[in-house]
Amino acid sequence: MNRKNDNPEKEIEKEGLIKAKKLQKVFVVGGGFARSRLLAVDDVSFQVNKNEIFTLAGESGCGKTTVSKILLGFLEPTQGEVYYRDKNILELQKWEEKKQFMKEVQSIFQNPFETFNPLRKVDSYLHDTAKNFGMNGKKRDKKAVEEALQSVGLGMEEVQGRYPSEFSGGQLQRISIARALITKPSLLVADEPVSMVDASLRMSIVNLFKELRDEYSVSVLYITHDLATAYYVSDRIGIMFRGNIVEMGDVEEVLMNPKHPYTQMLKESIPEADPKKKWTERVSITELETEEYMRKGCKFAGRCPFVEEKCKDFMPEEFFVDGRMVRCWLYEK
Amino acid sequence: MDILKTENLKSYYILEMGETKKEVKAVNDVTINIHEDEIYGIAGESGCGKSTFLKTICKLVEPPLRMIGGTIYYQIDGKYVEITEIKEEDFRKLRWKYISYIPQGSMNALNPIIRIRESFKDFFTAHQKIENEERDFEEPLKKHLSALGLPVRVLKSYPHQLSGGMRQRTTIALATILKPRIIVADEPTTALDVVAQRAVIQLLKDIQKLQKNTIILVTHDMAVHANITDRIGIMYAGMFVEEARTDDIFENPLHPYTKFLIASLPKMGDKTYKPSVPGVPPSLSNLPPGCPFHPRCPYVMDICKKEIPQLVELNTEHKSACFLNSKERVE
Ligand SMILES: Nc1ncnc2c1ncn2[C@@H]1O[C@H](COP(=O)(O)OP(=O)(O)OP(=O)(O)O)[C@@H](O)[C@H]1O
Ligand SMILES: Nc1ncnc2c1ncn2[C@@H]1O[C@H](COP(=O)(O)OP(=O)(O)OP(=O)(O)O)[C@@H](O)[C@H]1O
Ligand code: SF4
Ligand SMILES: [Mg+2]
Ligand SMILES: [Mg+2]
């Protein structure tokens, strides 16, 4: 890949690239009597720094995708703001500014089948992306597309003239990563980019993220439930549970020495790819997702082994301990 | 005894574009035996033909997919029956009662506007007579759910009120209520978090223990394979290139592709660089001559570029299709 780094701010380390401030998102679910408000995201603040891979991890339905859609400007938060390079993205007025934001912040979705229009050939879609973001001339556009495909291990021959239905999930996911790379973005928001691909391809995708970070100063917001790849690839991590970030900090610290009872449980349940270490304990999940969302205190109170009275009634604040954030009453000083 | 076996099975996507005709060889000469009462896992590169293989053995072949050759046998009450010879209307009776297929992404296929109970009922009435609702439907349903450790109140919920994991378990419960002999599950744990994954795996194990059926499980999650399968078949470019007992696949992979696959697994607490398979996956419509892995194989020899290695047994129950391992090379 021949991606010249023309970002003059490369040297400035640890500077926030995108910041989420106290995001909240309420959905109204169900109809008639079953109608209720769902606090899908609540009081979520974090930032992705320059030259950094930041992971948001957590169980299905905890609000990861909702957060990423708000960051991309696809979904308006009920409350809170998002700043990209210190500009509030909801207040970007000029078309030029919006276009620049869309060019610099690219996304990769969970389900690659939704990324592509089933009636259009995949390569024409890629070429349009290059054209829309003005990569200067047909020849350059073509080259940009080819380079992007190459960086995900695909060739033009395999893609040309084919419709999305002619690819497997994994192939399509690589093409959607290639599409995101065409505009040479500063930030990639990747929502579960590896859940549909094989183990080796998973590694090649996360290795690609590392390479993009190290050589082209691309930051990555990596959203996943796969803690093993999260540990491998990220610098910092935020663990989400039912709409809140419950623990956030350096990946080594958070995953190797978790403080929040939920993170501890999550770590215990990580499966090992080793037939000698099979699961022996049984898990029981009886609480329904919506019931946990409706809790007024700590949302983990129903499953937490350390639960106290206070937890059931009051939502814990963000406590800062040993350089990380933990949202749990156990850490109130 | 085998419950299902294929011989030289081939199914291709045939794409006609004007003058040109293209064949995507998604299942290419597969001969495989699946035993009664076992959990058989299938892993392999994205796009290598795993889902196509499952569709083919479930007799769900629709254009542009075509079964080009070979045979598929089900063992029904001790006799092998060639399924391509069964008429569609007779085969319909086997579906869900003899063989259940849980396709990729099926947890999103529950009807969103009716309660789970109604979904079960629609499904039930389509396959079985209900004379007395309480005796023929409610009772067996509640028994089935509680045997699987699912709360009975899921029946009153709408799909959107359930988490992805709970929806997936409900789908599996639905697909197994008629006690099929074979359960075919395509990626039932992808997109689920680890806790939900464990619950799904536990559910499949429980069903298998209760009903003594055979599960054919496709997944990219090698940890899931390690936890639940008895044997694993590794697919590459439409072929099975290795098959062994689960322990042996992890401890002693023989085929170079499998070696890469196992070496690429990340572990907590280990940040050392994990390589992935070099090169690009082959195009199934334009396969290289000889061994399909040879353009990417670090051990490639002359013979690999000319001849296709056969899947042969090397150790007990351990087969591999590679000239490095096989005796053919010496001859
Ligand atoms: N448009 C919507 N309307 C109503 N509820 C929604 C909507 N989108 C999401 N939700 C709900 O909000 C919660 C968070 O959903 P979200 O998709 O953000 O979770 P997630 O962490 O990405 O989950 P997964 O790991 O399954 O992708 C879930 O309970 C979901 O059902
Ligand atoms: N309808 C179709 N028309 C043409 N080619 C197809 C079609 N469906 C699948 N293919 C091709 O057939 C091959 C096998 O696809 P299949 O879905 O079986 O792969 P898979 O192993 O299940 O992949 P994944 O792990 O990504 O689910 C792929 O190369 C794919 O591009
Ligand atoms: S047969 Fe040859 S090319 Fe194929 S995997 Fe074995 S050594 Fe490699
Ligand atoms: Mg999501
Ligand atoms: Mg598949």
Word description of this protein:
- The complex is a heterodimer of chains A (333) and B (331).
- Chain A has 13 helices and twelve strands.
- Chain A is α/β, with parallel strands linked by helices and 333 residues long.
- The termini of chain A are far apart.
- Chain A has one domain: P-loop containing nucleotide triphosphate hydrolases (Rossmann fold).
- Chain A is globular, with a radius of gyration of 21 Å.
- In chain A, the strands form two sheets. Chain A has an eight-stranded mixed sheet, sandwiched between helices.
- Chain B is α/β, with parallel strands linked by helices and 331 residues long.
- Chain B has one domain: 3-Layer(aba) Sandwich (Rossmann fold), CATH 3.40.50.300.
- Chain B has nine helices and twelve strands.
- Chain B has helices at 50-57, 88-94, 116-127, 133-147, 164-176, 194-211, 222-228, 246-251, 256-263, and strands at 2-17, 20-35, 39-44, 65-76, 79-82, 99-102, 182-186, 214-218, 231-236, 239-245, 312-315, 318-320.
- In chain B, the strands form two sheets. Chain B has an eight-stranded mixed sheet, sandwiched between helices. In chain B, strands 2-1-4-5 form a four-stranded antiparallel sheet.
- In chain B, helix 5 (164-176) runs parallel beside helix 6 (194-211).
- The longest helix of chain B has 18 residues, at 194-211.
- Chains A and B meet through helix 7, helix 8, helix 9 and helix 11 of A and strand 1, helix 5, helix 6, helix 7 and helix 8 of B.
- Bound molecules: adenosine-5'-triphosphate (2 copies), iron/sulfur cluster and magnesium ion (MG) (2 copies).
